[in-house]
Design goal:
Length: about 200
């Protein structure tokens, strides 16, 4: 028994000699990790609607401008919902009109910078997706509003529908099952004329 204990102690001492003490770099790294875990992470304050709008208006890159609609639009939807809850339908309407104007501005810049959306869909896809969300949002506003205040919102809805349809057409110009437009200058055989047979 004493021999087994002595053998165990000698093996333990041999392992400690092989491993040795922890290097100073490892100790410093572990201390750094412990301190990082102990320090609370302070979240950065979210940008206000005004800051997002200003950033959007200053953006000159078409794709980045279109992508900014996601954050800006979400902030506008939040403000519009808050106004609806407060019964301030005029503010809600103004916010949605500004959203429509922002979508239009982003679309125009995109069309100038990248006219072939099918080949360069970046920016177009994000704008189309968010415009779909905007349509659902404006429909909710229309349902919540009193009847006399609805006409301006119905105009916003119509404009968003048209822009969404245009975005889809730009992204997918060749749709399966859709016939190409008929060329008015092409000759077509008359009813009583039979096409000539080729030999």
């Amino acid at each position: 028994m004493a021999g087994a204990a002595a053998h165990y102690c000698s093996e333990k001492n041999a392992r400690e000699k092989k491993i040795g003490p922890l290097p100073a770099l490892t100790v410093a790294f572990l201390a750094f990790c412990f301190l990082c875990a102990a320090v609370p992470v302070v979240p950065r304050p979210a940008e206000t609607l005004e800051q997002l709008q200003e950033k959007f208006e200053k953006e000159s890159d078409a794709v980045r401008k279109a992508k900014q609609i996601q954050k800006l639009g979400d902030a506008q939807f939040a403000k519009e919902r808050e106004a609806i809850r407060a019964g301030d339908f005029v503010t809600a309407g103004l916010v949605m009109e500004k959203y429509r104007d922002n979508v239009r501005a982003a679309l125009e810049v995109l069309k100038k910078a990248h006219p072939q959306a099918e080949k360069h869909p970046n920016g177009y896809k994000q704008l189309e997706f968010h415009t779909g969300q905007g349509l659902r949002e404006v429909r909710d506003v229309i349902l919540a509003m009193p009847e006399p205040l609805r006409p301006p919102m119905q105009t916003v809805e119509k404009d968003l529908k048209e822009m969404n349809a245009e975005l889809l057409k730009l992204l997918f110009p060749r749709r399966p099952g859709e016939r190409p437009p008929i060329d008015p200058g092409a000759s077509t055989p008359k009813k009583d004329e039979k096409p000539e047979k080729q030999p």
